[in-house]
Specification:
alpha+beta; single chain; eight-stranded antiparallel β-barrel
Length: about 170
């Protein structure tokens, strides 16, 4: 029941956020992008997560095609031996965007990954190093993206993520 309540809360938040982010797309161009994401972890966590992404394009401020990216993911982990399990992650990365003449932008980068877990009332927070690569697709009103990420830490995370970005 706890898992269903969490999923319903996330779905409700995303439903509210979509109209505002889509409206913001047409009103300004601040260099910020925000949107929902889905992650499947095939590393130590082995669960799926729903979360959000925020990105800032530094190329407005510096000459290089660099983007700062932050992400939050909430994993829908199965209970272990009757104990409640809660796992969430926060990632802070920098992406180098490879210049192309196409409607897609490949990127690669790295950063810091923070994993927080609670099993049966016992909490643990660990940090790790992220290696990330992916591609954003320019469709005009929003930008779908797909990326792979490896976090070397405890736990090790290997995630495949897809999502949508809306400009603010």
């Amino acid at each position: 029941m706890k898992r269903f309540a969490s999923l319903a809360a996330v779905a409700f938040a995303l439903t509210i956020a979509f109209p505002y982010t889509a409206q913001a797309q047409t009103e300004s161009n601040s260099g910020f992008e925000i949107g929902p994401r889905v992650t499947i972890d095939v590393g130590d966590i082995e669960e799926f997560a729903l979360g959000g992404n925020v990105r800032y394009d530094l190329s407005q401020d510096v000459e290089e095609p660099v983007q700062l990216a932050g992400a939050f993911d909430y994993y829908f982990a199965d209970d272990q031996g009757g104990a409640d399990v809660t796992i969430y992650t926060i990632d802070l990365n920098a992406h180098y965007i490879f210049p192309t003449e196409e409607t897609f932008s490949p990127y690669a980068g790295g950063g810091l990954g923070i994993t927080s877990s609670e099993v049966g009332g016992i909490s643990d927070t660990d940090t790790g190093l992220n290696l990330v690569g992916g591609v954003e697709f320019d469709t005009g009103s929003f930008q779908p993206f797909v990326q792979g990420q490896v976090t070397i830490g405890n736990p090790d995370r290997i995630g495949i993520t897809g999502g949508l970005l809306f400009a603010l």
